[in-house]
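Quarterly update, task 2.4: MRU-bound model.
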Amino acid sequence: MVPETVAWTGDSLRVLDQRALPEEIVFLECRSVADVAEAICTLAVRGAPAIGIAAAYGVVIGARADRRNLENFIYQLAATRPTAVNLFWALGRMRAVAEREAEEPDDIFLSRLLFEAGSIHHEDVAGNKRMGSFGAALLPQQATILTHCNAGALATGGHGTALGILRSAREAGKEIVKVYADETRPLLQGARLTAWELAEDGFDVTVICDSMAGYLMGKQKIDAVIVGADRIAANGDAANKIGTYGLAVLAAYHKIPFYIAAPESTFDRSLSEGCEIPIEERGAEEVRLLPGGKRVPEAISVWNPAFDVTPAALIAAIVTENGVYRPPYDFSK
Ligand code: MRU
């Protein structure tokens, strides 16, 4: 069983520290907004929906410390990671409750905020299960799947988006013959998290280096590529972990359906195209440090964009908790 990614303990946020996986199961107790912000920045908690949920509980922690300082706390949480729009969506929901309940005494104010954070959390799990059923219907009776990064229970409130579809398909009696997990350089969310999460739940999972996907597609029947997303523009262009775009191009060449699974909270209807999505660039050290402890020499520069944008034209369907969208996409309304 995969432990809960985030849980409210009554006076703190308990976070499964994903940096320690798969070797160790370690939990962090976040007792301040700074703790929550640090957990998000360092990827102790990661994955677009899980970031939003953690930030929502972070607002509760801030309000308990000093409700008059709430806007600063929200600002601090919003400054953690730029690409996953679920973060700003969740903070927006929390801010709206704080404004609506501004005249309430502390105990009621805090209970309303906690209720909202809990709702964001539980709606995510329920939504993933609905998304899972819609996505499962897209798969053949026996399916071999390729995925990238981690869009599973670890990246969400539970069940997962892309990996939730596999769980739901299995529950519906379909056979997930094998899942290939891209290792997902540089932070190895596929090799460390997806492989562990799927193996914990009894799936047959095989890790490949990111560069092996094209060869795999040419050699072995892959029924679908399914990945998550961090932000989807109004025209359907979708930002996800770096390497996703290349995978979509390969899938198109090999005529393999490429599916995005994401909740409605991942849509950014204010952006008309994917080129407007802010792409996080992380520190060089993540790329410089190589497997086995070797390093890219310090004199050589490295570049570390954490996400890329897959053009809508390469996406066969976008699966959400409300159903399956097919091209041409228009999420402007
Ligand atoms: O940098 P990360 O690990 O937060 O990136 C996560 C991804 O790219 C996921 O695919 C995405 O957030 C969807 S999670 C359901």
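Highlight for this quarter: The pocket of MRU is lined by residues 43, 46-49, 84, 149, 151, 155-156, 161, 189, 227-230, 240-241, 306 (CB under 6 Å).
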